[in-house]
Design goal:
single chain; 371 residues; alpha+beta; Butyryl-Coa Dehydrogenase, subunit A, domain 1; Butyryl-CoA Dehydrogenase, subunit A, domain 2; Butyryl-CoA Dehydrogenase, subunit A, domain 3; 4-stranded mixed sheet; 4-stranded antiparallel sheet; 10 helices; 10 strands; 51% helix; 15% strand; globular
Length: 371
C-alpha cells in the first residue's frame, strides 16, 4: 500500500510542493487516514500498533518519490510525535499526538541555533521559572516544518552550565501563543517540498502542563533518541538512491550513442553496479539495526556508520545518475537533478558526515580501552 500511495498520490502532488515549498495538508490528512503516519504508535492514539521498522519501510518508499516530504514527515513523526509518545503525559498525548497522527496538525522539533547545530549542549535558549510557569527566550534556525508547524517542541536550558548534559528542558509551544513567531520558509538547495525556517521565542510564557517529561532531563532525552533517528535516516538515503537507480537503469537502456544502448558500455555498467551494491549493503544494515532498536540495544556506533555510509552512497548514486543522463541530467525536466540536490542534505542534517566519523572513532577506541 505504501508504494502504491507514493507512486500515485505523492508523485502527483510533488510538482506543486516543489514549486511552492509547502506541504500539502490534503496529502497529510490522507496519509493519516490510511495509517501511513502513525504506523508504529499505539492504536489507542490512532497509530497502527506495528513495530518501528514499519516507519523505515514507509520512509524508503516516500523518499524514493519525494525526499523533501519524507524529511518533513521525519520531523513531524519521528522527532515530534515520538517524543510526545515516549515522554508525554496522557493529556499531552491526547492533545498533541492524536491530531498529528491523523494528519490534521503538524509538529516540529527545534534544536539547532545560529551559533551551534552539532553542539546541541551549548544551547543559548533559556527558560526561567516564574511561579508555576516558565518564561522561555531563544532563537532556533534550520528548523524543519517551523513555517507551518502547529506545535513546536523547543529545548532550552533551565539549569546547569554550558555543555552540561543536565539542565535542558523540553517545552511544547503552540502556534499563536504570545511571543512565538517563525520566519518565512528558506530558499534551499534541495528538499524544496519541506518548509524550513527560524523560530523566535520572545518571553513566551509556558504553563507547567506544556513541559515534556522531567525538568532538566531534556538533553538526556535528546541523546537517547539520536541513534534511532540516525538509523531511520538511512531509510531516506536508500529511497533516494533507489530512485536514482530506477531512473538511470531505465534511461541507460533507452539512450543510444554510437549505435548502441549506453547500458552496453562497461563504464555505464560500472555505475549501475556500484549503485545497486550500495543500496543493498545499506538496506541490509538498516533492517539489522531496526531489529536491534526494537530489542532496545545500544547502536550508537552502528547508527553513525549507517548514516555515514548511506548518505555518501546516496550522494554518489545521484551524481552517477546525472552522469548517465548526461546533459539531460542537468535539466529540471528530469528527476535526477532533484535527487542530487536532495541527497546532499543527508550529509549535513541530523549530524554531519564529520560528526559521524568522530562518533565512530570514539566508540571504536572505547573497545580498545581509550576514548
Amino acid at each position: 500500500m505504501a508504494r502504491r500511495f507514493m507512486e500515485n498520490e505523492v508523485a502527483a502532488a510533488t510538482p506543486e510542493m516543489e514549486a511552492t515549498g509547502m506541504l500539502s495538508m490534503e496529502l497529510m490528512r490522507e496519509m493519516g487516514r490510511l495509517g501511513l503516519l502513525g504506523t508504529f504508535f499505539p492504536e489507542k492514539y490512532g497509530g497502527g500498533g506495528f513495530t518501528i521498522t514499519s516507519r523505515a519501510i514507509v520512509s524508503e518508499e516516500m523518499a524514493r518519490i519525494n525526499a523533501g516530504l519524507d524529511i518533513s514527515i521525519f520531523a513531524d513523526i519521528v522527532l515530534f510525535a515520538r517524543a510526545i509518545a515516549r515522554h508525554g503525559t496522557e493529556e499531552q498525548k491526547q492533545k498533541y499526538l492524536e491530531p498529528v497522527l491523523r494528519g490534521e496538525k503538524i509538529g516540529s522539533m527545534a534544536i539547532t541555533e545560529p551559533k551551534g547545530g552539532s553542539d546541541a549542549l551549548s544551547a543559548r535558549s533559556q527558560a526561567r521559572r516564574d511561579g508555576d510557569d516558565y518564561i522561555v527566550n531563544g532563537h532556533k534556525i534550520f528548523i524543519t516544518n517551523s513555517p507551518v508547524a502547529d506545535f513546536i517542541l523547543v529545548i532550552a536550558r533551565t539549569d546547569g552550565k554550558d555543555r552540561e548534559i543536565n539542565g535542558g528542558t523540553w517545552f511544547i509551544l503552540e502556534r499563536g501563543v504570545d511571543g512565538l513567531s517563525t520566519s518565512k520558509p528558506f530558499e534551499k538547495l534541495g528538499m524544496k517540498s519541506s518548509p524550513t525556517g527560524e523560530v523566535f521565542i520572545d518571553n513566551v510564557r509556558v504553563p507547567a502542563e506544556n513541559i515534556l517529561g522531567e525538568v532538566n532531563r531534556g538533553f538526556y532525552y535528546l541523546m537517547e533518541s539520536l541513534d534511532v533517528e540516525r538509523v531511520l535516516e538511512g531509510a531516506s538515503n536508500i529511497g533516494i538512491a533507489q530512485a536514482c537507480l530506477d531512473a538511470a537503469a531505465k534511461y541507460a537502456q533507452e539512450r543510444v550513442v554510437f549505435g548502441k544502448r549506453i547500458s552496453q558500455y562497461q563504464l555505464i555498467q560500472e555505475k549501475i553496479a556500484e549503485m545497486a551494491t550500495g543500496i543493498e549493503l545499506s538496506r541490509t544494515m538498516l533492517y539489522r539495526l531496526m531489529r536491534a532498536v526494537e530489542r532496545e540495544e545500544v547502536v550508537t556506533c552502528e547508527a553513525a556508520m549507517l548514516k555515514l555510509y548511506s548518505s555518501r552512497m546516496a550522494v554518489q548514486a545521484s551524481s552517477d545518475a546525472i552522469q548517465i543522463f548526461g546533459g539531460n541530467g542537468y535539466m529540471e525536466e528530469y528527476p535526477v537533478a532533484r535527487y542530487y540536490r536532495d541527497a546532499k542534505h543527508h550529509e549535513i542534517g541530523a549530524g554531519t558526515t564529520e560528526i559521524q566519523k568522530i562518533i565512530i572513532a570514539r566508540e571504536i577506541l572505547k573497545q580498545y580501552g581509550s576514548a
